[in-house]
Write a structure and sequence with these properties.
heterodimer, A: 290 residues, alpha/beta, Rossmann fold, globular, B: 265 residues, mainly alpha, 2 domains, 11 helices, cell membrane (chain A), AAA+_ATPase (chain A), nucleotide-binding (chain A)
């Protein structure tokens, strides 16, 4: 689904001493099927932005459109449930939302709320268990018997079971070990392509944003600071440092190489390994410089 | 929901009232609550109203914010007033509403009770508005200190209070987070038949209880790891100290009470 923000403001607890403007005058447009990364320092409004995507929040000013749904401050949309069916949100630490006696029931919870029939739900459960890489034997177990990583997968399966068209991920890899983080991101990337999803990823990892996203939105204090292709945005080191963001390792290497050795390599999305090979070639392969 | 009720909320500032020793505030409010019932003339009520409003102004919190925050209480106050109008039958008949006589005594009594009610709520909510929960528990622990002699576990009581107060906002946040997550999975907390809405609470309560128990366990572990073993010989990070402004406040309050008795009829 195509998603756009038009001059959106959102204020928490307006007209109280706790009034807090979380986003101001935010506009962007995302085409259907895009993998979007939203990055920004703590308190930059990332979480507020994603809560607009399925109507948990409605803008204080401006307009948010998600496909045919329009969120404006004036009127509430009636078919909000329909919107929530089509936009799945995986919140931070999604394992905290597990509550049923068995994993099977917990995964079925979402589809049931959205009115899917028993048989379709059964099929979906098998499918999503495969997607998140959990063995089917676990279905009858209590979610609270699982390990942390498995719990998270089960919770994500519960969101995927609804079969959303837009997937919103709020730091889905927080608190996982490096291997788990990698597996999790690969899984979302696979799903993004196989299901032709529009994906929003909120992340602190510039590496992930560079590797998976088609489009990066950099937020700072509730406003859009930068926007564009990751390979372009992340070359602007100085500006990113201004808003307390770092650049991905690979690009850092490029800059360092240029600074120390005077060799300028261009970034075309290569991996650290490929880059090392290029550097080796540029230095005249296998010389003493190695 | 967030701005409906301000009772129990703390609004940070650096006003005179904020800086007073919490014990001063608690003691004064304790006596204020008693002395409110001694007022019986227009002048004495006026005096107490003046005292409460000027204290409220001295907190530097917008008066409109406080008044609005007491909305649910207003409903209660108006309800008591109307109840008095209907039930009390003293004095002369002032006028009739739908041929039901309203007595002058009823208006006066109703107004007095409503005002008394308002003053009580206003002044007590000033305590929580200007004092952090931690300060309040510290003060209570101090004030209850004499009970230690009869082996009353004052420190443990204060600890329990401060822990539960400390975790109220955390639990509120947690509730909001989980309810948002479940709403995203299609739970409808706000509309639909009563039966469905009651059922919608289960996916909210189960995760909430689980995280509360986990948190409690972690807290106990962390406290033990740092060698916590109760109140004996424990020093305080924030020493409470009665300063000049506290004495001044006590003095001012004593003057108010004195004039209260002078203006009584």
């Amino acid at each position: 689904m195509e998603i756009s923000f038009k001059n959106v403001d959102y204020t928490y607890q307006p007209n109280t001493p706790f009034e807090h403007k979380a986003i101001r005058n935010l506009s962007f447009k995302v085409a259907s099927g895009t993998f979007v990364a939203i990055v920004g320092h703590t308190g930059s409004g990332k979480s507020t932005v994603i809560q607009h995507l399925n109507g948990l929040l409605t803008p204080t000013y401006g307009e948010v459109s998600i496909g045919d749904y329009k969120l404006t401050p004036e009127k509430k949309i009636k078919n909000i449930k329909d919107l929530r069916k089509r936009v799945g949100v995986v919140f931070q630490y999604p394992e905290h939302q597990l509550f049923e006696e068995t994993i099977e029931k917990d995964i079925a919870f979402g589809p049931k709320n959205f009115g899917a029939n028993e048989e379709a739900i059964k099929e979906r459960i098998i499918e999503v268990m495969q997607s998140v890489n959990l063995p089917e034997q676990l279905l009858t177990r209590s979610p609270f018997d699982l390990s942390g990583g498995q719990m998270r997968r089960a919770a994500i399966a519960g969101v995927l079971a609804v079969d959303p068209e837009v997937l919103v991920l709020d730091e889905p890899t927080a608190g996982l070990d490096p291997r788990g983080q990698r597996d999790m991101m690969e899984m979302f990337y696979r799903l993004h392509h196989s299901k032709k999803l529009t994906t929003f990823l909120v992340t602190h990892s510039m590496e992930d944003a560079l590797e998976y996203a088609d489009h990066v939105i950099v937020l700072d204090k509730g406003t859009k600071f930068m926007e564009g292709k990751p390979s372009e945005v992340f070359l602007r080191q100085k500006e990113l440092n201004e808003v307390q963001l770092d650049i991905p390792e690979v690009i850092k290497i490029l800059f360092k190489v240029k600074e120390k050795l005077g060799i300028s390599l261009s970034y075309k999305g290569q991996s650290t390994y490929d880059l090392a090979c290029e550097l080796k070639a540029a230095l005249g392969g296998g010389s003493t410089n190695e | 929901m967030n701005n409906a009720l301000i009772i129990g909320q703390y609004v940070p500032s650096n006003s005179f009232i904020h800086r007073l020793d919490p014990r001063t505030k608690i003691v004064i409010i304790f006596f204020f609550v008693i002395f409110v019932f001694f007022a019986n003339s227009v002048a004495s009520y006026g005096l107490l109203t003046l005292f409460s409003i000027s204290s409220a102004l001295a907190t530097k919190i917008k008066l409109s914010f406080i008044i609005k925050g007491l909305t649910p209480v207003w409903i209660l106050i108006i309800f008591t007033f109307i109840l008095h109008l209907i039930v009390t039958k003293e004095g002369e008949v002032l006028f009739e509403v739908f041929s039901y006589p309203i007595f002058s005594g009823a208006v006066i009594l109703g107004a007095a009770i409503a005002l008394r009610f308002f003053l009580l709520i206003l002044v007590t909510s000033l305590l929580t508005l200007t004092t952090t929960p931690i300060e309040i528990t510290d003060a209570i622990e101090h004030i209850l200190q004499p009970l230690n002699r009869i082996k009353f576990p004052v420190h443990e009581l204060a600890l329990m209070m401060s822990i539960s107060l400390r975790f109220i906002p955390t639990l509120m946040q947690e509730t909001e987070k989980i309810s948002k997550a479940q709403a995203s999975r299609g739970v409808d907390f706000k509309t639909g038949p009563m039966k469905d809405r009651i059922q919608a609470i289960v996916p909210l309560l189960v995760p909430l209880f689980i995280s509360a128990f986990k948190r409690a366990e972690e807290l106990a572990m962390a406290m033990e790891a740092r060698g916590y073993q109760g109140g004996d010989g424990r020093t305080k990070l924030r020493e409470l100290k009665i300063e000049r402004r506290d004495w001044l406040t006590f003095f001012g309050f004593a003057l108010v009470i004195l004039s209260l008795f002078l203006t009584r009829s």
